[in-house]
Amino acid sequence: MKAAASDAATARTTFVRWIGIWLGIVISAGLLFTIFLDRSARTDAARRQSMAVTMGVDRLLHFEIRNLERAMRGMATIADGYANDHEDRSRWDLPGEIRGVVSRHAELQDIDLYDRDGRAIYRGVSAYGQDTLLLDIQRAPPRALNVGRLIVEGRAEPIVPLMLRTPEGHWLVARLRTAELQRMLEDLDVGKEGSVGILSHDGIVLARRGASGAHVGRQVPVPAGLASGETSQVDVVSRLDGVERFASFAGTSGYPFVVAAGISKREALAPWRNYAVTAIVLLALYWLGTLYLMRRTASSESARDLAHDELQRHADWLAKAQEASQAGVWAMEQDSDRVRASAHAARLFGFPPVPGMLPLGEFFARMHDDDRARVEQAFAASWENGTPFHAEYRILLPDGRQRWIDAKGAPAHDPGQVPRMSGTIVDVSERRDQQEQLARAEAQFRELFELNPLPFWVYDVHTLRFLAVNGTAIRRYGYSREEFLGMTILQIRPPEEHAAVLASVEEATEPDDGLRVWLHATRSGKRIHVRIHSSRIRFDGHDARLVLAEDVSERVAYEYDLAWRAAHDENTGLLNQRTFVERVEQLTRHDPEATYAVVYVQLRDLELVSPMFGRRTRDEIIAAIARRIAATDGGAGPVAYVPADAFLIAVPQAAQWDRVVDDLHALFAAPVVSETGSHRVEAWIGVAFQQQPEQSGEEVIGHAALAALQARTENVPTMHYTDLLAEKASARMAIVGRLRHALANGEFELFFQPIQRMRDGTVVSAEALLRWRTPDGYVPPSSFIPLSEESGLIVPIGEWVIEQAAKAQARLVAAGFPQVAVAINVSAVQFMSGAVPRQIREAARRHGLARGALHVELTESAMLRRPDAAKFAMEELQQDGVCVSIDDFGTGFSSMAYLRDLSLDHLKIDRSFVDHVDQDPRNASICRALIALGKGLELSIVAEGVERAEELAWLSTHGVEQVQGYYIARPVPLEAFIAWLEAPVESR
Asked: How many CA atoms lie within 13 A of 488 on its CB side?
């Protein structure tokens, strides 16, 4: 037995050694593979970073040079005129144009003009060198924009010539400061040894940042594809000034520049080297530890054999002590199938109470099926391992009874004898039954009381003192168990509920699953809502009640919050409209003779606050107005907020409506202060009274809203509801109904009013004006266009206008007037739909229109609602050659921001400012300011509403380029307009 155990121990030790060796090999291979992958990942990351820096600088460079190219193209025509007009060059203000461009583009030093052969026609104030040093005109390639050689003279700032050929073959040469190129490279993350630079297509360094090696003016090698001007990106590994870098070259800007960036290979791989060294050190430590453990294992095997012998001797002594006890005794030899059992041992198993040898299989056959395998396994393990055997199991007696046996034994190894095992068996059935009963009782108590996740306690129904509490109650209420047992249930209840608690104790309902929610108080004074479940019991000789306390505070708070949210607006804290209607209808429930009034307050211009100042400012303004209205004390009743920027105020005593309205006017007199500044808020107020006792609250609110709408239409602060307003509303609805069929019935048509150039009287465009022809005559546009916008019908109508305007322009071309463009008025609602650029582009394609054949006129509101969307749409229109104008400028919510940021071509001065401008000093001041503003922004100025010769003369004197109005011509249908164009100028 000892030899077998020793062999088994040796086998286990050998197995552990081989596991350690193979595990070390796997770890070593995995770690080396990880080091290789980490190096590849860091190399790829450095290449991607280099390419990202290159493409970012290239994109900035593209936008910079594109803006300069556009500015130079803007003066190309003037430059040709200046070059060709040898007699009077003062007519072409080329120096002024150059100063204007240079002032707007600080990156330009100056702009020169050369003839086709490279001779200077106009030179700036700070010229560099001779003409031949600035550019070689004969060798300039035929591209949109050429770049000359870098010029560095003395201490002067280096410059790069940008050469643009004019339509007539002259050359505009702009001197670009290399400092602007250098600025693009600031704050770029290329590391200490990395570099980034901008090169010309032949490799001359124009600007650089980072490690030294490629200075400005030095020529560096450029990949062949980029040097030849191709548009591509190149990723290489370069070595410059002794540093190996992951370099990227890009020539994708569309201009003859090359952007190069390099990330130091040494810097990129520095973390990887540290990681690799650390990994190798750890791997070495693992192998050293493994060798040390192998040596220790070998030395401990000898000590284990000695300990095994000592344990065996002690097992023999224990077996002899059990044989001397009064319990059943048994013994058997190893590899034997028979057991020597005492009489008592045989009797316990149901065998005849005679000592002797019994088959081992019969002992196991008497064991319970659920225990047999476990005991056999333990018995075999004891023989195999030489360890004591101990098991408790059930046996089934022949008469069907079950008995619990506690069996113990231990193998004995006497020198020169066959190994044997001996032990005792004891009947422990009674003890096991008692243990099971006690365990069941304890488990039930723990599960039902101590382990209940809800507070659980028992109290005496006579003294109200606590008799027992569970751990959950102790944790929830903050009292210790001792403190609880010294208290009564009244001490965890608020004083105002003591009487109700005493009454509930006397209730005989069993069990009590009351739905009432009680208030309990914790030791800290916090009050919680609980639902009580209780039952009378007899506990430790006392009449008691068992109580389960369910904390429903969160549910109560949630239900309260749901009820509040269902009745209130979250932003303002005021009632919502549904709850307001309920409260209003309750005002007359107890007094049918009483009447009330409803005041409808519609805030003005808040839809412009969000795009200008943000949604947060708009919410702050609404919340501030809500607080002011809620704080008024002028006879007002319930107050509600309607999400369409409106408030509802009930006046329980209808006669006090004037006091409420006066308070509202005073309220709106003070500005609202928010994070973005002070805002003046105004409102239209509608007042309606309950006209009949049975009239619903919703109807009264609708009347007040209609009155506020009419106040908005008439631009008055307050309006009372009358039946006439309802009739007008019905008429408006009727017009909307007719509008829905007008387009299908062909009732719309376009009239055209010419726009004339002041300089020579040429008609440059015609504004298309929508007219609605009905059997009763023409409907004024001021009547049906606002209704079309409100109903959304302006979108299909606007699409029809675009199609008809395109047809009209094609008709003008066929009539011999291709230079006359057609201007289309686009509604804010239609423009914000986002489809206008596409519709104009498709209409122009269907009718074969040239670029610039169609113009678009927008109001300020169309641009202020969604400035970003407006900007993108306007840029898309201009890319298609569509001129964009601001119509009726100065009459809306004017903002200089969109004039600065949006792409515009024309600014139209509203007719209200042109009216008697020669006589009205105020109108004259406004017009002069608008003209100066437009010219400063390089916009063409159009004055509309010109009806007198004196007005035309004043506008011509003050530099207005184009005019339109009744003095020029009235709007007429297309054929009449063509006839007007064909007539001699003097007969018009």
From this structure: 11
Q: Judge whether 697 and 586 are in contact, CB under 8 Å.
A: no
Of the chain, the percentage scoring pLDDT greater than 90 comes to 14
Helix (H) or strand (E) holding 751: strand 748-757
* Rounded Cα–Cα distance for residues 566 and 508 (Å): 39
In this structure, whether the domain defined by 571-721 belongs to CATH 1.20.200.10 is answered with no
Nearest CA-CA partner of 216 in 158, 264, 261, 177: 158
Cβ proximity of 863 and 870 under 8 Å:
yes
Could you tell me the two tokens for 326?
Answer: 């009064």
Q: Is the dihedral of CA 805, 811, 812, 813 positive or negative?
A: positive
Cα–Cα distance for residue pair 503/461, rounded to 1 Å: 12
CA distance 508 to 514: 12
Confidence of residue 957 (pLDDT cuts 50, 70, 90): very high
- For residue 774, the cross-strand partners are 777
DSSP SS3 for 443: helix
Q: How does DSSP assign 794-825, residue by residue?
A: HHHHHHHHHHHHHHHHHHHHHTT-TT-EEEEE
d(CA 56, CA 59): 5
Q: Helices 553-567 & 577-586, crossing angle to 10 degrees?
A: 80
Sign of the CA dihedral running 940, 941, 944, 949: negative
Would you identify the CATH topology of the domain 325-429? Answer: Beta-Lactamase (3.30.450)
Rounded Cα distance between 598 and 689, Å, is 6
Alpha helix positions (H), 587-693:
609-613, 615-631, 657-669
Residue 199 · residue 206 · CB < 8 Å: yes
Residue 680 φ/ψ region, left for φ over 0, alpha for ψ in the -120 to 50 degree band, beta for the rest: beta
* pTM exceeds 0.90, yes or no: no
According to the 3-state scheme, what is the secondary structure of 286-313? HHHHHHHHHHHHHHHHHHHHHHHHHHHH
Angle between helices 723-742 and 697-714 (to 10 degrees): 70
Compute the distance between CA of residue 137 and CA of residue 140 in angstroms, rounded to an integer.
5
Measured distance CA(697)–CA(528) in Å, rounded? 39
CB atoms within 10 A of CB 706: 20
Class of domain 452-557: alpha beta
One of 3.40.640.10, 3.40.710.10, 3.20.20.450, 3.40.50.1950 is the CATH number of 749-987, namely 3.20.20.450
Residue/partner pairs of 799-805 with CB below 8 Å, 24 or more apart: 799/830, 799/835, 799/839, 800/743, 800/748, 801/748, 801/750, 801/768, 801/770, 801/825, 802/836, 802/839, 802/840, 802/843, 802/854, 803/843, 804/750, 804/768, 805/750, 805/768, 805/843, 805/854
Where in the chain are the domains? 19-291, 325-429, 452-557, 571-721, 749-987
Under 8 Å between Cβ of 322 and 329: yes
Tokens 């020669």 locate to 918
> What is residue 768's three-state secondary structure?
strand
Give the containing element (helix H, strand E) for 555.
helix 553-567
Neighbours of 815 (CB within 10 A): 16
683-721 pLDDT per residue, tens: 888 888 887 777 788 888 888 888 888 788 777 888 888
Q: Is the pLDDT of residue 190 over 90?
A: no
**DSSP-assigned beta bridge partners for residue 161:** 175
d(CA 210, CA 421): 86
- Name the pLDDT band for 122 (thresholds 50, 70, 90): confident
What pLDDT, in 10s, does the model give residues 849-891?
A: 999 899 998 876 656 666 677 778 888 888 888 898 887 676 6
Amino acid symbol at 207: A
With CA atoms as reference, report the closest residue to 227 among 206, 250, 196.
Answer: 250
What values do phi and psi take at 540, rounded to 5?
A: 55, 40
The two domains 325-429 and 452-557 share their CATH topology (first three levels equal): yes
